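Exercise 3.2. Students should predict the tertiary structure of the chain below and write it as structure tokens, then compare their answer with the key that follows.

Predict this chain's 3D structure.
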Amino acid sequence: MTSPLGTALNPREVELKFHLPQGSRVLLERYPALAAAAPAHHHLVSTYFDTPDRALDRCGLTLRVRQDGAKRIQTVKSRSNGHGVAASRGEWEWPIGQDSPDVARLSQTPQLAAAALAIKGRLQPAFVTDIRRTTHFLRLDNGTTAEVAFDEGDIQAGPAREAVSELEIELKSGGVEPLYQLAGSLLSTAPLWLMSESKASRGWRLRTGQGGGAQLTRPLKFKRRLCADAGFRQIFGATLGHLTANIGPTLRGDPEGLHQARIAIREARAVLQLFDGYLDADGARRFKETLRTYGEILGEARDWDVFCLETLPAAMPDLSRERLEDLNSAAEVERQLAHEAVAVAVRGRGFSEMVLGLVSWSDVGAIAPAGHDAGLTRRHLSTLGPSLLDRAARTVRRRGRHISRLSEAGRHDLRKSLKKLSVDIGALAPFYGTKPVKHYRSRCEALEKILGAANDAAVTDRLTHKLVAAGRAELLKPARALERWNTVRGRKALIGLKPAMRNLRHAPSFWS
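Answer key:
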């Protein structure tokens, strides 16, 4: 089995990163394993380099020269693959004798030769990190070793500056499971929350005023003979990676970041449902409930985002005389409160404990015992996939019967099942041809678009009623006008519902 740290030709860095709130460090340094490990102190000043057109960044690489006392270390890192909670990056290091990069070192490394050619003679400083680092080297269970680092300082990009206060746990040797166990223990010791944004990403965000936004799901690639248990772990781990990649944007109030975090939670729940018959039932049920709780918190904020940023602007041209500005002002207050609730939840210990617990459980305890009916450990995912997709598609067809007579609740249930099917298809798509998958997904998306528009209308009614229920008399007239407009929108949304369901029902099952 390949080491998580890679090989000599493809060295890799694996680490967990946490935001370190004020006062937490003192508590963490009392943790027995840290208190017993002699600390090492470093003052690290790192200058990051790239070309004016960001050639390295566009290749998914960062290049820095780090000053640590009299030493100069040149480091190139690749962007994290985004398929897990722990950052996993390629990393190449060389001691050098100057403050500027030695591009020849890159030229001598096969994986970096093309990048070296692209940047030759064009490098310039991009930003600087000035960090006081305290490290503790720990020996964990099963021969695993890790470095725990407290990083405090700042990132500087021209006149822009951002404080850094982080805890990093980097795997030095062995397996990742003890790393997650250590992280869980530290979470119980002091307030922390998971983060995934690297110092390099933050530096570019400071320099450009852009970036650090929402992260989309990254497609997976599978080998044909991938074992089903390994496939489950990869698919499920990718949903958790998608979630943690959007923590930073969500906490910065980015609506799309929050939307992607909510999608990631839905993806995780869908994957648990997909493999439901092969998983530890108690653990799966417990984590589904926890995921649903956080999904509801993010969902409320997402509903207000749609109401304020999409629905009301769409209604304004038709209702310009109805003082929708008053309704918008009241809704914006609710939106900010919902985002504050999200921030409290994500920064709370329970959220990070849930994510780390899911990683640990999926790696070790999720799979049902070998004696379970056709367990995941004895089958290839490619052979199991058709039965999994059949089950999800049957649920959609069953809930879509007599679709024109479905109630609002019935359409909502159908929409949820359709979203789960879409997640399942995306997870297993690497085993099938691109064209048949695309053809089937296009029919799913057509139906989902109709159901989504109808759901937006239902949510608009709910939120409008909530605003009026607060007792503000000036909102009554614009609320009634919006309700009339929304009723027409809701009826229009359902046009084409029956043909869209029929098209999906008759679509060839590409997995059969």
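Discussion points: Strands lie at 12-19, 40-50, 61-68, 71-78, 87-96, 124-139, 145-157, 160-173, 193-195. The first strand starts at residue 12 and ends at 19.
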